[in-house]
Structure formats: structure tokens, C-alpha cells
Amino acid sequence: MPLTGIEIFKLLPKTNCGECRVPTCLAFAMNLAAGKAELAACPYVSEEAKAKLEEAAAPPIRPVTIGVGDRALKVGGETVMFRHEKRFENPPGFAIVISDAMEEAEINSRLERFRQLQYERVGLTLRPELVAVRDDSGDVSKFESLVNKVKQNNQCSIILMSSNPDILAAGLKVCADQKPLIYAATKDNLERLADLAKANSCPVAVKASSLEELGQLTTKLTEAGVKDIVLDSGARTVRQALEDQVIIRSAALNKKFRPLGFPTIVFPGEMTDDPMKEAVIASVFVAKYGGIIVLSDFQGESLFPLLVERLNIYTDPQRPLATTEGIYEIGGPGENSPVLITSNFSLTYFIVSGEIEASKVPSYLLVKDTEGLSVMTSWAAGKFVADTIAPFVKKCGIGDMVKHHKLVIPGYAAAERGGLEEELPSWEILVGPREGAHIPAYLRTWKA
Ligand code: SF4
Fold first, then answer.
1. Distance separating alpha carbons of residues 378 and 384, to the nearest angstrom
2. Alpha carbon of 54 to ligand 1 centroid (Å)
3. Kind and range of the H or E element at 112?
4. Are 163 and 152 in contact (CB under 8 A)?
5. What is the mean pLDDT of residues 325-343?
6. Do β-strands 326-330 and 363-368 pair in parallel, antiparallel, or remain unpaired?
7. Per-residue b or e along 429-440, where b marks 16 or more CB atoms closer than 10 Å to that residue's CB
8. Which of 210, 228, 259, 378 is surrounded by the fewest CB atoms within 10 Å?
9. Would you call 333 helix, strand, or coil by DSSP?
């Protein structure tokens, strides 16, 4: 059982030094008990106390990693019911089903779609992560060869799906080094799948017909030494599945009920035959609270909105997306190319750089660190003003890269022109457009 805040407090040094960024040990203990703080934040906890606090400090929903390397997917580790309370930690993974009963052409086309359907947005690559290899044929060699093909052809994490432990064991022989998710342990095969998971150090999904049974099965798996577990409540209607997701999250976070403290897997493709409805159902589980969302197929028109929804929900509401401060070269600029400056709010950067690219006028874009605030907001907050822009322009080295010394500032920061002329006496300060859309027309009239 997890410790209460008072029990944790008794194990802390009680010096109230504040180094954990809360004023007292009691407040820190309460945060730990609520899963809102990391034990590592207190440097003075004794080893003995650490061991005792391990359970209390563990996230109420265990993080589980599927796959290896750069493309490994980490799910779980959530600490809040609602994003605005803090943030959601690990975005759900999207999986496409490929069955060993499919024709070769269909298998190839699904693998190709998996590779092709990825998108660049705000400096990030949005893409699905998993291929769910499903045994429908009952043929060990067919399953093995499909697992091998998926492993060879794709940079993806793998889910091995079968109700037959022998077939899963054959799949594991091919790809255990990729740490696939084994799907699924049930009351009928629990011991065998626990052995497979332990022998191959792979996570295992557990499927039940009710939440009560699910809790019993995860308890048995945990007692058998399996730690990385993913939950399938077995519900295949939208209403029941959504209800289960909410109850699982709430039980883990609010009741500290460890048997349900794991990420979940959901199957929107098994809740409808209509591909558009499937996408809508999947979007529900992106918000609440799917860990892995298995789709019957991928189509760009439905996958892209899901990836964008996931991006929106899993960004930290307390930290704006920011671009790194520096000089960005757009279109291969030279010593006579325009020099523009903007803030490092990602959206601003991508709008401005996109418009410069559209103008076909090679340019330098200086991106000033404004803590992720837009030009107007950072200007109002005193972060995009002459006193902060001038030192950045001097130190970034742009003065040595262009013959002219003309700096184009955003129209919304026009009031800084005078201050910049004083701070940067060797530069001519030009006021550019207020709106990004007017940048191409402005740049086409540029003369060094
Ligand atoms: S850092 Fe440790 S000792 Fe200091 S106030 Fe926080 S919990 Fe107490």
C-alpha cells in the first residue's frame, strides 16, 4: 500500500530547508503522496528512508516502454486526471493492425502506409509508432515470417497479438530483441505469458472481461514478477470502454489502487466498421486516456488529425513551444541577403520562416529567446525590446555574415526602432510588416 503524506513526512529530515522548492518537508511529503513530486528533489533523504519511500514516490501509473532505441514508445507515467492540473506526460502510441491472414499485397501496402504517413509540424515529426502483428491464421510459420518482415521493413515498435502462447513464443524468437508488447494474457494463459514476458524481458498486455477481473490478473502477474503491464479492460463498446478508461485512471490516481496503475490499450477498430467513426472514437481515447490506440488501418485523412490532436493535448500547457535562439538560414542566404529578427515562440518562427521561404528571397532569420512568447506578448513583457535585442544581435555574429547592416524588426515591435538605433549605432533599423503574410511582398522590394 502507498504511504500517506504523514507517514512520508516521518521519514523526511524535517529541516524545512526548502531545497525541494516547497517551503516545508510536510508540504513536500504531501506532494509526494499525491504523486506531484519526485523523491529525487530532496537531496537529504537517507538511503533507508529512500527504500521505504520507493513505493510512495513511484508514479501512480507505471511508465511502460515498448520497443528499443529512438523509436521506443513510452506510455503511462501519468499523474493527473486533467491536463490543466499539470500536464499529460507520455502521448499514446498509434498502432496499425497487420494480420498474417492478409494477402501479401495488402501487407506491403500497410507497411508502406506506416512509413509514408508522417508529417513535419512546428519542428516536430508527427508519426505513428506501432505495428500490431495479429495471428488470424493459427499458423506458426506464417506468423513468424510476418513478424520478421515487419521487423526488417520498419522502424517501429511491435505488438504481438495472439491467443495462442506457442504462436506468441514463436514471434518472440524473431523479435524479442525489439522488446515488443505481448498481447494478451488472460485468465486462461496467465502463467505461460508471465513466463514468456519474464524470459524475454518484454511488457505484456492483460485482457479481462471486467475491471474486477483485470485487477485480479495484474495482481497475479505482479506477484509472478512481471512489472511492465498494459491493461485491456475487454470493453468493445465506446461507452463501456470510455467508462473503463476513466475508472482505471481515477482508481490509480485518486485511490492509489496499484492493480490498475498501468497504461491501457484500446481498439477503436473493434468498436465500429466505419473508418470515420473509428477515427472519431480514437480521438476520444487520445483525450481520455488511451495508452496505446490500435487502429484497423491508417489513412492520411484520419491519422493526421489524430496526430495533431495528440500533439495539442500532450504539450505542456505551462510551457509554450519554443524554438532555439540563433541564426536561421533560409534559402541559402549570402552577404547581401536581408536580416530579419523575430521571437522564439514556435508558431511565430514557423509562420515567419514559412513566409520567407515562400518569398523565394534567401534571408537570415534571427530568433531571439523570448521564453516562447510571441512578438507582441514578449514586447509587452519587456523580453523583446531594444535592451534585450541589441546584445543578442551583437553576440550572435550576424554582423560578420552580411556586408550591409540592416536589421528588419517586426512591425509589432516598431516602438523599439529608436532604442535599437541607439544600442546598435552601426545598424540601420527597418520596420517590417506586422503580419507574416505581408513578408513576401516586403522582401521582394529588398535592396541591400
Ligand atoms: S529538501 Fe528535503 S529536507 Fe529540505 S525541505 Fe525539502 S523535503 Fe525537507
1. 5
2. 16
3. helix 104-116
4. no
5. 96
6. antiparallel
7. bebbbeebeebb
8. 210
9. coil
Q: Which residue has the cell 505481448?
A: 182
Judged against a pLDDT cut of 60, whether residue 218 lies above it is answered with: yes
- 13 CA: nearest ligand 1 atom: 3
Coil, strand, or helix at residue 328?
strand
Contact 132, 97 (CB under 8 A): yes
Instruction: Say which amino acid occupies 365.
Output: L
Residue with cell 522502424: 155
> For residue range 228-264, what is the model confidence (pLDDT) as tens digits?
999 999 999 999 999 999 999 999 999 989 999 999 9
8, 11, 24, 25: residue to mutate for ligand 1 pocket, most atoms within 8 A of CB: 25
The single-letter code of the amino acid at 7 is: E
The total of other beta-carbon atoms located within 10 Å of residue 282's CB is 26
Q: Identify the bridge partners of residue 447 per DSSP, sorted by sequence position.
A: none
Find all residues with CB under 8 Å of 115, minimum gap 6, and list them: 153, 154
The three grid cell numbers given for residue 52, joined into one nine-digit string: 521505504
Q: Mark 313-341 as b/e (b = at least 16 C-beta within 10 Å).
A: bebeeeebbbbeeeebebeebeeebbbbb
Q: Which of 9, 16, 39, 45 is the pocket-test mutation for ligand 1 (most atoms within 8 Å of CB)?
A: 16
State the Cα–Cα distance between residues 403 and 125, nearest whole angstrom. Answer: 36
Q: For residue 203, give the nearest of 172, 233, 174, 166 by alpha carbon.
A: 172
Integer Cα distance of 389 and 386 in angstroms: 5
For 100-134, what is each residue's pLDDT tens digit?
Answer: 999 999 999 999 999 999 998 777 899 999 999 99
> What are the C-alpha distances in Å from 340 to residues 321, 343, 404, 415?
21, 11, 13, 16
> What is the number of alpha carbons within 13 Å of residue 382 lying toward its C-beta?
0
pTM for this predicted structure: 0.76
Residues with CB under 6 A from ligand 1: 12-13, 15-20, 25, 28, 42, 44
Q: What is the three-class DSSP state of 12?
A: coil
Ligand 1 atom nearest 16 alpha carbon: 5
16 Cα: distance to centroid of ligand 1 (angstroms): 5
CA of 20 from ligand 1 middle (Å) equals 6
CA of residue 262 to ligand 1 center, whole Å: 29
H or E element, residue 169: helix 165-175
Determine the distance separating the centroid of ligand 1 and the alpha carbon of 349, expressed in angstroms: 40
* CB within 8 Å of 358: residues ≥ 6 apart: 440
